[in-house]
Amino acid sequence: MDKLPLQGIRILDMTVVWAGPYAATLLADLGAEVIRIESIQTLAPTTRGIMARPPETVIQNLPPFAGGYPDRQGGDRPWNRSPQFNSHGRNKLSMTVDLRTTRGKEIFNRLVSVSDIFIDNNVAETMEKLGISYAAMKSIKEDIIAIRMPAYGDSGDYKRYRAFGVHMANALGHGLVRGYPDMDPSTNSGEFVVDAAAGAQAAAAAMMALIYRNKSGKGQLIELPSARATFAYLSKSFLEHTITGRIPESLGNRDSTAIQGCYPCIGDDRWIAITITNDHEWNQFVTAIGNPTWAMQPEFKNHLSRRQHHDMLDEHISSWTQSQDNQEAMHLLQSAGVISGPIMDVRDALNDPHLKDRNFYVEASTPDTGTYRYPTTPFKMSETPLTIRRGPVMLGQDNDYVYREVLGVSDAEFNELVQEGHIGTEYVAEIG
Amino acid sequence: MTDKALSGITVIDFTEGISGPYATKLLADYGATVIKIESPGVGDGTRRSGPFPDDLPHIEKSGMFLFLNTNKKSVTLNLETNAGAKIAQELLKNADAIVESYKPGTMDRFGLSYQDVKEINPKLSYISISNFGQTGPYKDYDLSEIVLYAMGGEMYSTGLEDESPLMLGPNMSLFQGGAIAAVGSLGTIYRSQLEGSGQHVDISLMECLAGSIDRRMATTLAYEYTGEITERKALSAVGYPLGVYPCADGYFELVGGLLRWNQVVQMLGSPPELLDPKWSTPEAMQDPELNAEFDEIFFPWILSKTKQELWSLAQANNIQSAPLNNMEDVASDPYFKEQGYFTNIAHPVAGDFLFPGAPWIMSETPWEIQTPAPLLGEHTQELLSAIGYTPNDLVRLREQNCI
Known about the structure:
The complex is a heterodimer of chains A (432) and B (403).
Chain A: E1 10-14, H1 19-29, E2 33-38, H2 56-61, H3 64-67, H4 83-87, E3 92-96, H5 102-113, E4 117-120, H6 124-130, H7 134-140, E5 145-148, H8 165-171, H9 193-216, E6 221-223, H10 226-230, H11 235-244, E7 259-264, E8 271-276, H12 279-288, H13 303-308, H14 310-321, H15 326-335, E9 339-342, H16 346-351, H17 353-357, E10 361-366, E11 370-375, E12 379-381, H18 399-406, H19 411-419
Parallel strand pairs in A: 1-2, 1-4, 2-3, 4-5, 5-6
Antiparallel strand pairs in A: 7-8, 8-9, 10-11
Helix pairs in contact in A: 1-9
Chain B: E1 10-14, H1 19-29, E2 33-38, H2 63-68, E3 72-76, H3 82-93, E4 97-100, H4 106-109, H5 114-120, E5 125-130, H6 145-151, H7 172-195, E6 200-204, H8 205-210, H9 216-226, E7 242-247, E8 250-255, H10 261-267, H11 282-285, H12 288-303, H13 307-316, E9 321-323, H14 327-331, H15 334-339, E10 342-347, E11 351-356, E12 361-362, H16 380-386, H17 391-399
Parallel strand pairs in B: 1-2, 1-4, 2-3, 4-5, 5-6
Antiparallel strand pairs in B: 7-8, 8-9, 10-11
């Protein structure tokens, strides 16, 4: 076997922000030819940055994932330097076309005729305005597979509801089962679980449709609302309600059955997470930390009584962790069979000996950013090793390949398309 | 019988817990035949975790087990015995894929390593899901939801500056690992269906998180680009309105800010004091005084409305937003109900409960619960008979504690 799993599959990618692009990244990692269809006339905010050319003051105030351009400088082409985009931009191609024009629509149809999968996660209005629908694509390519990723669904009352991942998570109940238990949920910080969940499952759905197409010759439409795909993740809290009638609340860092917490260690803002699920692990824990006298008190005699005195126990555990290095404590406890691990900031992650041993971060380059380490694919395959085959794709980087080789346009037509503003590598000045 | 996306694909499933069973549940619910191997009398540990009806633990009534194992068949095999391991090899002969989540090295001990089974069945896709991967210094370490999120995910920057880092809700990271494992499984299966030869995929849950779009990939890259570590901090003075606010009957989250300022003003009924152009510049949005002044106008308004009223109003003005629902709100939401976010599953022992339903809809190949989660060993007899074991063999194997 020498072909990557999805080698030979061409995917048209009109995804924006986080969820859709992540699905496309996973498919690209597996070897598909993913062509991002972009436009130099429009920028979907928070895809290649919140603005095409954000002013210096805006960049300085953005959180690192959004404003952390190399050296905090947007440079000549900020859209090719955004950490948000570049974190999922690997292994993809990019072409530009203005889909609002007749010629643009014709180009799109030609692309559909030579592709296997179409994927997008725009709001319904955007696709309606552009006249892009599964029925229209199917009339051009009978066995096309299309994946639509609306927020809640492509029909009914919430069809047009707008949401980022964190909003969908809240509508599904996540906001009230996480957070500091003694604090108002308005202190909750952001999370992008929905994007991660929907992105991964869209990639899974795409491959199921490919497997089915191989045996039946049929394509199909997949409706994968991000909220819907995430609901399974909340199953424990949901089932607690449907099975016991209770309404679950946030446990903070605790667990419904274990002894668990996040405890301070030596150093500035260093922590370790520990989970003790039963009496055996407790005994291992007590031995590993040197049989302190506090561990012998009657309140801690069994799992149930330890759970009843969890606050008191946490104080004692903290008194031990405070004199420990979090990495060394993990090795000590894990060697004794106690589940634990340091809370790793990004510097810890990049320097982690285990991830290094497994070559999880690899260098990649683009002319507009230079060379940096990037997280790579989570699949280690024995016969077809996967890696970052090319760095994060730049806007319009593959116009030549896509127009000339995939679509076979002539030099004359190519020049016309440049003149008409379809082909380019820089956003027009008017959009800022 | 309606054709399913994965009809005709057989998976032998040696997983337990959350991540592995979620990966194979996705395959089973879209049509694969998934044969779950459990240890006799014990089974998947999730059978002993709740929630349970009336809070009474029972191995056939665990809510999480019932959810994660729909459409699967359960065969009990004692893999520590030669006869048990031999039966597993026989089942693998005609399978398309094996998914396992044991500690690295365990399958070798049973004579079921990738090298071993490749000899028996070269087309087999062999997917190993483990905490930290099959190699490396942490390979034998254990994890829980909090440890996975702490080491692989973005726990460090989740929460407040003066408090400890904070995990997400129960199981969120473990499910993500499962979804990613399903992606890796399907990629391998797809290729082996075309070429008739499989391969080994080593999936580390830690790497599923370290490479996740839930911020970690982007914060890692931001550090590479700038040397800045993403810290825990409350959102403040980054545009108004933004974040979670109290309202008449709970909490509501929305994103206003520069890009949606006109919609926000409209939603608030265009009060004259907000029509001043001073509000809508990038600098204004970052000015703590203007943020405070805005709050004085905004709080009385939002506190006078329920979360459902706010959701309709905000959406009518195209503002990204949502109520903070509790699980009772979720279960009674008419839209989620009508769209099929939930499904009722009747189980012969546990009873009849509402579970999360189809995660996505395929126009040609339905998602369907054909059978509820299996009883421990429910299909042992059926599947062993199918590969030639006689009733006498089964009695003997049972006596020897092999099945």
